[in-house]
């Protein structure tokens, strides 16, 4: 017979020891990646673990081999360009150029020249001939980023190019044949933009052949851990920080955050955390500065506090000592993936507390939400394995 409190402390120490041992290896062993293409533009791999993202990746791969125009929508920072590059690299045009233009970043006159090119002397400052992105993307893929921001007068000209597959440079008269695949992105509701008169309906129908909506990071929480691992590896080398992974508390803090800035914000958070780690080998929760938090305050570890006494905390619970030892032996073997170890610990802790998720979460030092999310993931994976 051992007390619930002492049993909980021993289990937490075991869980923390195992987590730290495996977290350094997590991102090599426990993230899912597709061959050859890019969420991490450098190594051309889409990094994901969430079922929601997996479905989007499958659709993107299906359309990649066709010449079909694709419209990628989603909030700012979700990785729309990453998916566009993925589609290009999985397509039959992979050996051709991937050329992108941000329709929101240029004035109407500059955007027209960048899209369609111009002849020498076409306007003041046009001292030489310039090939636009349609010509530069010939034989490859053209990304029209934030197409919803394109002025209406250019939308009409774009529509003609898409219909005829010919472009006429500004100041020119000769049509130039172009062989391109179009991928467009937007962070707006394009149908609403059409209804409001900001976007041409005929152009909308032309580009909305195969729409793909990329979910916000908060709607695919299982992607947070592997994405954080990828960017930690990438940025730790750049910043020369000897960081090998995260503590459980750090991952917990990231997974419970809403990420209004999506992956772009995650990258910023990781970079700040790496700077604050100093010589630490693991990123801890106090290194992670979220929106609204102060860097100086977050960079200091909070003093340890004694847990408040709660009803039923000091009641005695029977624990099978042989089973406890079996748990420890299994975890010391070091052959299971972290997700497998974590699943065993969560399920056995739930058994100990007769399925009470809040008490199991308290015992493991995590939130009830994390327990619920993990159980949903395990249930989903079990269903997939039975199909």
UniProtKB/TrEMBL annotation:
Q: Which Pfam families does this UniProt record tie to the protein?
A: AAA_lid_14, HTH_8, Sigma54_activat
Sigma-54 factor interaction domain boundaries: 46-275
| Record region (Disordered) | 296-326
Q: Which GO terms describe its biological process?
A: regulation of DNA-templated transcription
Q: Where is the composition biased (Low complexity)?
A: 296-310
**Which GO molecular function annotations are given, in alphabetical order?**
ATP binding; sequence-specific DNA binding
Q: Which InterPro entries match?
A: AAA+_ATPase (IPR003593), AAA_lid_NorR (IPR058031), Homeodomain-like_sf (IPR009057), HTH_Fis (IPR002197), P-loop_NTPase (IPR027417), Sigma_54_int (IPR002078), Sigma_54_int_dom_ATP-bd_1 (IPR025662), Sigma_54_int_dom_ATP-bd_2 (IPR025943)
Signal as a keyword? no
The superkingdom of the source organism is Bacteria
Q: What is this protein called?
A: Sigma-54-dependent Fis family transcriptional regulator
């Amino acid at each position: 017979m051992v007390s619930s409190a002492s049993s909980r402390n021993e289990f937490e120490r075991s869980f923390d020891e195992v987590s730290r041992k495996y977290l350094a290896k997590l991102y090599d062993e426990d993230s899912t990646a597709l061959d050859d293409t890019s969420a991490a533009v450098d190594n051309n791999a889409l990094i994901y673990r969430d079922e929601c993202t997996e479905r989007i990746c499958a659709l993107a791969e299906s359309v990649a081999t066709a010449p079909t125009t694709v419209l990628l929508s989603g909030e700012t920072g979700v990785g729309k360009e990453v998916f566009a590059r993925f589609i290009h690299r999985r397509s039959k045009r992979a050996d051709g150029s991937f050329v992108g233009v941000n329709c929101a970043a240029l004035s109407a006159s500059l955007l027209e020249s960048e899209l369609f090119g111009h002849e020498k002397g076409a306007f003041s400052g046009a001292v030489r001939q310039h090939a636009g992105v349609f010509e530069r993307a010939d034989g490859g893929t053209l990304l029209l980023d934030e197409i919803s921001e394109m002025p209406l007068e250019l939308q009409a000209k774009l529509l003609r190019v898409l219909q005829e597959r010919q472009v006429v440079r500004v100041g020119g008269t000769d049509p130039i044949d172009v062989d391109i695949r179009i991928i467009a992105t937007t962070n707006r509701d394009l149908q609403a933009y059409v209804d409001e008169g900001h976007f041409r309906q005929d152009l909308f129908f032309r580009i909305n052949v195969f729409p793909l909506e990329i979910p916000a990071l908060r709607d695919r929480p299982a992607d947070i851990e592997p994405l954080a691992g990828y960017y930690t590896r990438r940025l730790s080398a750049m910043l020369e920080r000897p960081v090998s992974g995260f503590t459980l508390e750090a991952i917990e803090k990231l997974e419970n955050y809403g990420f209004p800035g999506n992956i772009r914000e995650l990258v910023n958070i990781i970079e700040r955390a790496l700077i604050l780690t100093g010589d630490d080998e693991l990123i801890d929760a106090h290194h992670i500065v979220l929106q609204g938090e102060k860097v100086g305050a977050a960079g200091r570890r909070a003093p340890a506090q004694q847990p408040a006494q709660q009803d039923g905390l000091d009641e005695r619970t029977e624990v099978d000592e042989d089973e406890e030892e079996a748990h420890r032996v299994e975890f010391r073997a070091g052959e299971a993936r972290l997700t497998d170890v974590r699943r065993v610990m969560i399920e056995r802790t739930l058994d100990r507390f007769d399925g009470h998720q809040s008490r199991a979460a308290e015992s493991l030092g995590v939130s009830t939400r994390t327990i619920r999310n993990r159980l949903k993931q395990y249930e989903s994976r079990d269903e997939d394995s039975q199909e």
